[in-house]
Amino acid sequence: MLKHKADCLTANKSDTVRRLIHIGEYKKALNIAKGFWRGLTKEDSSKMVLAYECMVHTGFYEQLGTDTVWAISEGVRILMALYGQGEDYG
User: Which of 26, 44, 62, 65 gives the lowest tally of CB atoms within 10 Å of its CB?
Assistant: First the structure.
């Protein structure tokens, strides 16, 4: 867990996403990263948005026939591929 809320505020958003991934906070990481557009394909961006939305509104997306487990895992896979590498924040 981040020691201080200020740690997130002083880092840029990409660093914050990397830190959140490192501690397993995928929902929070997706919430930030879903707004990124630079360096992302439209398809990858859409999958990250859907993953976050499925985390937040699981029942709604299941009613629509969305495989929420697959959508979430696909969004997290993209998130990890883009931001899961790099410096160790432990």
Answer: 65
